[in-house]
Amino acid sequence: MKKIVSLFALVVAFSSCQEDLQTNNPAFQAKQNDVYWRASDARVSVDEDGRMIITAYNLYETVTLETSSTDPGVYVLGTTNQDNFASYSNDVDGFEDYYDTGLYSGPAFKVSGMINRGTAYQTNSAGAQTTGGSGSGLRVATKTTNGAVTEITVVARGVGYRPGDLITIVGGNNNATFRVINIQQSNGEIKIKEVENGLFTGTYNFKAVNEEGEVITFSEGVFYKIPISTF
Question: From what superkingdom does this record's organism come (predicted)?
Answer without folding.
Answer: Bacteria
